[in-house]
Amino acid sequence: MRKHMILRVLLSLVALAALSGCSGIEPWVKPYERDRLADPIMFLDMDPVSSAYIYHVYEAREGARGGEGTAGGGCGCN
């Protein structure tokens, strides 16, 4: 009986310690931190020039039906 009581108290203390670790976390990014998050080194793309070209071709191809929401006739002209 006493072992169960000690186990219950210890589990309660562990649960309280685990929950107290999350109390001070703010999930919002501060305005002065956004420039670090927008750093080009943070991009997942290894070749941004190639991706820009592929994106331009996609826009030209899908522009006739509004692929990404930009206006265009599908010819690739700017």
Describe the 3D structure.
- It is a single chain.
- It is built from 3 helices and no strands.
- The protein has helices spanning 2-20, 34-37, 48-62.
- By secondary structure, the protein is mainly alpha-helical.
- The protein has a domain at 40-78.
- The model has no long low-confidence stretch (mean pLDDT 75).
- The protein starts with a helix and ends in a 16-residue tail after the last helix.
- Helices cover 49% and strands 0% of the residues.
Report the sheet-strand fraction.
Answer: under 5%
Instruction: State the helicity in percent bands.
Output: 40-55%
Largest sheet: none
Number of distinct helices: 3
**Contiguous runs where pLDDT drops below 50 for at least 5 residues:** none
Secondary-structure element string? HHH
Tally of DSSP β-strands? 0
Helix and strand content put the structural class at mainly alpha
Query: Compute the gyration radius: what is it?
Result: 27 Å
* Outline type: elongated
- First-residue to last-residue Cα separation: 80 Å
Mean pLDDT: 75
Element layout with pairings:
Layout: H1 2-20, H2 34-37, H3 48-62
List key phrases describing it.
78 residues; mainly alpha; 3 helices; 0% strand
Task: Give the structure's gist in a few sentences.
The protein has helices spanning 2-20, 34-37, 48-62. The chain is mainly α and 78 residues long.
